[in-house]
C-alpha cells in the first residue's frame, strides 16, 4: 500500500557525502515503492537530493515550505505539489496532517526539533504513526544515548523505546514501514 512518508533532514550542502548517499537511497526507495514524499520543500542539502531521487524513481513529491524560504530561492520548484506556508509552525502542521509515517535522516537543529516533536506527540498518544530514525554512519548514536539516559533517570518510561524504530540505513527504514 502506498504511503505518504514525511522525511525530516538537513538543508545543508556542507556535509559529508555519505549522508547525501543515504538521502538518495531513501528517495529511490520511496519512488520505486510508489510512495509519496512529504518534506520541507527545499532544493538544497539532503532535502534536494532526496526530492530529486524520489522523482528520478517515479515517486511523488509534496514540498511544504515557508514563504521566507521561497523568497530566498530555496524551494524545489519541480515538486508535484508545493505548499507555501506563512511560517514554520504552519509548515509542520501540514506535514504532520499529510503523513502516514515519519522518517528522520541526519540533520541539524531543525531536524532534531521536528523529530523530537513527533516523538513527544507519539508518547502523548496523539498519534500512533511509525517514527523511524535512520542512523546513517552512527549519526544519531549520541541522541539515542540521550534517550537511554532519559529512561535510566526515569524522565521517560522503558515503553517509550517503542515510540520509534532505529534503522541502520534507508533500506531498513523502508522495510520497517512497508511491513
Give the SSE map.
Elements: E1 4-8, H1 17-32, E2 36-39, H2 45-56, E3 60-66, H3 67-71, E4 81-85, H4 88-98, E5 101-104, H5 109-123, E6 131-134, H6 141-152, E7 165-167, H7 170-178
Based on the model shown, name its key terms:
Rossmann fold; alpha/beta; 7 helices; 45% helix; globular; single chain; 179 residues; seven-stranded parallel sheet
Describe this structure in words.
The protein has 179 residues and is of the alpha/beta class. The chain has one domain (4-178): Rossmann fold (3-Layer(aba) Sandwich). It is 45% helix and 18% strand. The chain is built from seven helices and seven strands. It has helices spanning 17-32, 45-56, 67-71, 88-98, 109-123, 141-152, 170-178; strands spanning 4-8, 36-39, 60-66, 81-85, 101-104, 131-134, 165-167. The chain has a seven-stranded parallel sheet with strand order 4-3-2-1-5-6-7, sandwiched between helices. Helix 1 runs parallel beside helix 2. The longest helix has 16 residues, at 17-32. It starts with a strand and ends with a helix. The model has no long low-confidence stretch (mean pLDDT 97).
> How many beta strands in the DSSP annotation?
7
The strand order across the widest sheet is 4-3-2-1-5-6-7
Work out the radius of gyration.
15 Å
CATH topology: Rossmann fold
Global shape = globular
How many helices? 7
Intertermini distance: 10 Å
Mean pLDDT: 97
CATH class: Alpha Beta
Fraction of helical residues: 40-55%
The low-confidence parts are none
In short:
With 179 residues, this protein is of the alpha/beta class.
